[in-house]
């Protein structure tokens, strides 16, 4: 059905199409998804001590204001991450700010953390209990004079309603946000979060979302900080503000973060570098170009314990999780494994 509608949807501005998708899910216009692999032992896993039906998650950026997470669980996602949420409501960057690169199966966005703010979102989550594992992605307001305080504010707001909290230091669309990749700044931020966690007697798992545009020296330093601060998982990676040379679409030089197929290989290589340094001490959630069984398979081989997607659903439709599972199952059967976790890091 999606393949018939896709040409019509793609005639719409990408942000308009996204808003329509959110409204459809909000009013429960969720397609009846036949999933022959539901509860297949090949895909079962555990994340933060909770059983998951599969390791395929919805990445932050789709459900920015935590409006449709339960509908996404119905579409088959093993876990869902909402946000990025900032302390105060903000509009984000001027429109147009999302660009669909059809030939490249990619998006470029410069949204800039547009969201309704922490108070609005936490109230909604409290009134609509999640039916699956829910992560909340947090960041600072654009005009904030103290970004560290913004992270702490959001952490305190969401620590008792989320299943995990992701510290977003890697969006290319908030000026100078990526400076938190600096070893000293990152350590200060994570120490402050852990101190607050201790004060609140909270056991909420902390996840850090990493930029794909870092070099080997930065990877090593970031790894040291993550291990020192007992971070439970990392997301590798966010969108890229480089990687434009091989793109075909005329809009390839738009400012913003590139997601989808063009960053698949880049993020997979980065996953493998972190995997080798972390030695299994921190879980890895692989994100970037996941839209098929093969792309998920490659992420697991590189060292990812779980995967996330967003752009993949834009191009393959709401049944994307079941498509991935069906394709992944064929690859895993050839490998003769009983569970996908057996191939993690075998590249």
Compact overview of the structure:
The chain is 36% helix and 16% strand. With 347 residues, the chain is an alpha/beta fold.
Write the layout of secondary structure elements.
Layout (H helix, E strand, L loop, with lengths): L1 H8 L4 H13 L18 E3 L2 E3 L3 E3 L10 H6 L4 E7 L12 E4 L4 E4 L8 H10 L5 E6 L8 H12 L5 E5 L14 H17 L6 E5 L5 H13 L4 E4 L20 E4 L3 H15 L4 E5 L5 H10 L3 E4 L1 H6 L3 H16 L12
Parallel strand pairs: 3-4, 3-13, 4-7, 7-8, 8-9, 9-10, 10-12, 12-13
Antiparallel strand pairs: 1-2, 5-6, 6-11
Give an account of the 3D structure.
With 347 residues, the protein is of the alpha/beta class. It has a single domain (38-343), classed as Aldolase class I (TIM Barrel). The chain is 36% helix and 16% strand. The chain contains 11 helices and 13 strands. The strands form 3 sheets. The chain has an 8-stranded parallel barrel with strand order 3-4-7-8-9-10-12-13. The longest helix has 17 residues, at 183-199. It is globular and about 50 Å long.
Strand content: 15-25%
Largest sheet: 8 strands, parallel, barrel
Rg over CA atoms? 19 Å
Q: What would CATH call the architecture?
A: Alpha-Beta Barrel
CATH topology: TIM Barrel
Number of strands: 13
Q: Give the strand order, joined by hyphens, for the main sheet.
A: 3-4-7-8-9-10-12-13
How many structural domains can be distinguished in the coordinates?
1
Structural class: alpha/beta
